[in-house]
Amino acid sequence: MSNFWRKAAIVAVLIRFLAATPVSASPVLEWSRQFGTAGEDRAYAIATDLLGNAYITGDTRGSLAAPLSGISDAFLSKFDASGNRVWTAQLGSTGGERSYGVATDGVGSVYISGATGGSLNGPQAGFGDAILSRYTTDGVLLWSRQLGTASADVSNAVAVDGIGNVFISGYTEDTFNGPHVGLQDAFLAKYDVAGNRIWTRQLGTKQLDSSLGLAVDGLGNVYTTGFTGGDLVNGTNHVELDAFLAKYDADGNRLWIKQLGQLVDTTTAIRSNGVTYDNLGNVYLTGFVGGEFAGPSAGVDSAFLCKFDANGNLLWKAQLAAGEGAQGQGVATDGQGNVYISGAASGDLQGPSAGLSDMFLSKFDQAGNRLWTMQLGSAETDFASGVSADFQGNVYITGFTSGSLGGANAGDDDIVIAKIRDTVPEPSACSLSVAAIVALISRSRRSSVRKRDDVLR
């Protein structure tokens, strides 16, 4: 084959590749559902199962599935892939309950965690106890566990490993395991599938500390994140509020801990709300920061996303700023290595703001490039607190609205769940003719000093 026709073959293959390559993807709202009572109803977390069902949890001050037991009740709702609400379970006592975390185990169980001001399973230990409850995918309560001290205790997150162990994290104002360090300590606890507590770990400084996010990877490593008002790592905390990320093994041994403000050498306040991991062992954090972090700040809180490797090394950071502030609340990854964060923005992130604050969902690639952002809002206040992604390119967010996003507003704040998917444009037809290809190659033969990649330009 002559050099001329060899080049022709290369160009032909290149054109076929470019013509078949998608230009970009854009998000489409598949459906949005809204429900509530005359009182305040809010969803704080979401999880999906292998069948495409979504589970959301939070609290209600009305009757979603049963008469209200106290000030507020925890709830758990299941939706199928088409947006039909399959069932709702309500959990409460006379003291008031809230659920902040939800997780599925892949074998037919759903777990929620939160706090109670009463007695769900045994006597109340103190001012408020952390709770963990296990349900079937049909909404049947299997068991509830109450974890408390003489002071206030709250679980903010729950996660399940591959063999059925369950982990919760949050904060305590007293002592679970070891001496109480300060005003409020973060804690991490492990349970077996039957609800037996295996171990508890406490993490704190002399200031306020709390775990807000939790994830367990395929190797059984546990990641917890949140905020600290002190120094959890060697050195001095030079910000009023700092985000932390800690890694534990399955036996509760702490492998490492990082403080984000110390890593990026900033004096601005940082808070981390969510954590997840990918198939390569990398870890992602989202939350909000009070100033410049990875780009210009709008002068108020900005949402952020950070990527760490399995050893706790910070790989990159990204910042999302809106006119009146933005906060990252939930983070999730899909099977292709993309990362999604959800939260609330008071201003324009991508497109005009609809109201006082909007829900937002942003997609990033593995390198930290923002691919797109969707804002979803009413004329009132809207807040996206949780996000979950399945392996079919679907992303689910949940939160609450004081307006109308998927139906008429029932009262105060209503619960919202939405399903978003990426759409890929059809491959564009190639407009280059054979004559154009020949002319292109002929130009490349006119000079022997041109680089070999000139034909690609």
UniProtKB/TrEMBL annotation:
Keywords associated with the record: Signal
Signal peptide range: 1-25
Matching SUPFAM superfamilies: NHL repeat
Signal found in the keyword field: yes
InterPro entries (UniProt xref): 6-blade_b-propeller_TolB-like, Motility_Chemotaxis_Reg, SBBP_repeat
Entry superkingdom: Bacteria
Keyword Signal: yes
PANTHER family: CELL SURFACE GLYCOPROTEIN (S-LAYER PROTEIN)-LIKE PROTEIN (PTHR35580), PHYTASE-LIKE DOMAIN-CONTAINING PROTEIN (PTHR35580:SF1)
Protein name per its UniProtKB record: Beta-propeller repeat protein
Protein's organism: Lacipirellula parvula
